[in-house]
Amino acid sequence: MGAITILQGGRLVDPVLGIDTIEDLWIQNDRIIKSESATPKQARVYDVSGCLVMPGFIDMHVHLREPGQEYKETIQSGTRAAAAGGFTGVACMPNTNPVNDCGAVSRFIAEAARDGFAKVYPVGAISKGLRGIELAEYAEMKAEGVVALTDDGMPVVDSQLMRRAMEYASSFGLKIISHAEDPALSFNGTMNEGYVSTRLGLKGIPTISESIMVYREIALAEFVGVPVHIAHVSTRPAVELIRAAKSRGVKVTAETAPHYFTLTDEAVEGYDTHAKMNPPLRSEEDLLAIRGALSDGTIDVIATDHAPHSELEKDIEYDLAANGIIGLETAVPLGFEMVRQGVIDVKRLVELFSSNPAEILGVHTGSLQEGGLADITVVDPEKEFVYAEEAIVSKSVNSPFVDWNLKGKPVLTICEGAVTHDHSGSVE
Amino acid sequence: MVEKESSNSGQAYQFAHKHIFGIRQLSSTDIEHIITTAQSFKEISNRAIKKVPTLRGKTVVNLFMEPSTRTRLSFEIAAKRMSADTFNIAPSSSSATKGESLVDTAKNIEAMNPDAIVVRHSSSGAPQLLAKHIDCSIINAGDGIHEHPSQGLLDMMTIIDHKPSIEGLKIAIIGDIAHSRVAGSDILGFTKMGARVCLAGPATFLPYGVSSLGAEIATTVEDAIEDADVVMALRIQKERQNDPLIPSLREYAIQYGINRSRLKKAKPDVLVMHPGPINRGVEMNPDVADGSWSVILDQVTNGVAVRMALLYLTLGGAKSGQEQTES
């Protein structure tokens, strides 16, 4: 008989089990167990009434920067930020230094993650060194824990290489995650091509630079007969292509990031480098299409593209500044904003944050099932907080949401039975 | 020294801009005020002793991170004619070659207490970045492909020298609008002053949604020039690489170059303008550039006056000037 943790009086929502009910949740050691009527003496009891108790959220798109850029983030600091943001698992992108394109780097990440605050699912490189020339060694990386493959940040330009990657990856049960971008069309662009780029005199990245490659990935996946996942979808044309492909049975899944359904390219006004990312913030029309895709299932996942940068990369000329913003600690409240606005319901939110990314990555979590691993995200949907720079857990503070008043706070995060974040205010 | 026309209209007008980032921040009243001020300064440049003490003791740093001859020279002459002390920092002499960041360079300059930094930079928004970090006035002398406000103002001043008003004029701008900071400022300024701005150039030269800036896009260069009061040709950049905008300068010259026969479609008293330096025979034929309609050198002369006005107004010269008048 091990330690028992009881989450008392919360609303349990699990779309996989089809439940939405107010009930206690019992955890023993690392597993969810059947709740009983009598509370054991030694139990840790959390009063989570008014809160949502959901299967652990997974952010399938983060940059943890280790190895190589530890001054921006480490596996330790990044997973701590993940736990604070309500995530029990993160999938980290391979654009570290050295690149995660071989078993040794994958193993390094897996080992460093043992002391982390969330599960880390390493994503390996499609091509050696992310150079888009030759395939990396997928089998070796898989043996060290890699769950999927991507050249995120560096689009795979060569269509033949992408085809071979899809084919070869399928032999090892690995999925390709595509950073869909035609770099020739993005040519020197630093923000969305639109009215705002014209006004600010910044070179634009057109929506077609994304949608043309989304179409290529769909065509390749359909031809090869394998699934493909599209990272950080930002445009209406891409949404429409994915929707059409899904309706004819292509195994394509897609993610978007909170900033694409929260901000438009107007946020770049004043040359704010915290509104600079790739793909860039798009127009109102794109934002509405992304929301529609969240609602109708065209987009399967909300992932943050958490991209920590220091002021060395951000407090400089806009066109020279690095792409990307941190997102782990703001994703959940921004997701709940979509619930409040009626774009999605809570069940759908849990699918987007938990069960869908778990299924796409093929990892065993994302359910409140008895006997299952206790990865739990507890959110107080009514709790408001100011996202203050001093309170940011991540090592970097490059967020356009600093000083925003956010609503829907992750109050308790439990990873395999261990409390990794506790803002519940409950007395044990 | 300066008569402010809006001060007659009951509510006292005050020029309220510490920094000049672009035409976008200026109201039509601001623009009129700058031009009126510049007009009053113009005669200083014709005096035997071309110097007034207005900005004596003020320090102006020209931070030019991109090669520039005429704009830098124009700002320097403007500051000197107002008795300000000027210092020039060019890319080759600056710490940028030693890897110092723009913000650090500027902070170091600021530690020496300048009153204004005039900045030219290849990054759009660089003047705003400086203003975020340092305290003195920042004047944009051209940032990336965003704005070149002093050029926009001197263009408007030049038109006003020859026309009763900008309002109601048809102004044609021909060339690479998308990559021209001059066009960025001119379009905003001309439309704010009530002109009808017609743009022409191959589609590769037109930025996304340029009509949102208030300009029209003409189908052909002839349509743009037809009945125009002002025709401005922009410099075609020979050095733009890796982005196939036009096949050759030759084809551009034939299709879009301003020549005599094209100019005949304009009003008889048309003004021909160019921000310089001209690629003769490309965007403009020599006989057009040197013809009686050409005000290209007036633009250069007015540039000094406009920059004197900008320094005077942003450095609070207006205030001390007022005090002098009142005392």
Give structural notes.
- The complex is a heterodimer of chains A (428) and B (327).
- Chain A is of the alpha/beta class and 428 residues long.
- Chain A has 2 domains: 84 residues, Urease, subunit C, domain 1 (Roll); 307 residues, Alpha-Beta Barrel (TIM Barrel), CATH 3.20.20.
- Chain A has 13 helices and 18 strands.
- In chain A, the strands form 3 sheets. In chain A, strands 1, 2, 3, 4, 5, 16, 17 and 18 form an 8-stranded mixed beta sheet that branches. An 8-stranded parallel beta sheet of chain A has the order 6-7-8-9-10-13-14-15.
- Chain A is globular.
- Chain B folds into 2 domains: 164 residues, 3-Layer(aba) Sandwich (Rossmann fold); 151 residues, Aspartate/ornithine carbamoyltransferase (Rossmann fold, 3-Layer(aba) Sandwich), CATH 3.40.50.
- In chain B, 37% of the residues lie in helices and 13% in strands.
- A 5-stranded parallel beta sheet of chain B has the order 7-6-5-8-9. Chain B has a 4-stranded parallel beta sheet with strand order 2-1-3-4, with helices on both faces.
- In chain B, helix 1 packs across helix 11 and helix 5 crosses helix 6.
- The radius of gyration of chain B is 20 Å and the shape is globular.
- Chains A and B meet through helix 6 of A and helix 4 of B.
Topology:
The complex is a heterodimer of chains A (428) and B (327).
Chain A: E1 4-14, E2 19-28, E3 31-33, E4 44-47, E5 52-55, E6 57-62, H1 75-84, E7 87-92, H2 103-112, E8 119-124, H3 138-143, E9 148-149, H4 159-170, E10 175-178, H5 183-186, E11 191-192, H6 195-200, E12 204-205, H7 208-224, E13 228-230, H8 236-247, E14 252-256, H9 258-262, H10 284-296, E15 301-302, H11 311-314, H12 331-340, H13 346-361, E16 376-386, E17 405-415, E18 418-422
Parallel strand pairs in A: 1-4, 1-5, 6-7, 7-8, 8-9, 9-10, 10-13, 11-12, 13-14, 14-15
Antiparallel strand pairs in A: 1-2, 2-3, 5-16, 16-17, 17-18
Helix pairs in contact in A: 4-7, 7-8, 8-10
Chain B: H1 28-42, E1 59-64, H2 70-81, E2 85-89, H3 102-110, E3 116-121, H4 126-133, E4 137-143, H5 149-162, E5 170-174, H6 181-192, E6 196-200, E7 216-217, H7 221-225, E8 230-233, H8 249-256, H9 260-263, E9 271-273, H10 286-289, H11 296-314, H12 317-326
Parallel strand pairs in B: 1-2, 1-3, 3-4, 5-6, 5-8, 6-7, 8-9
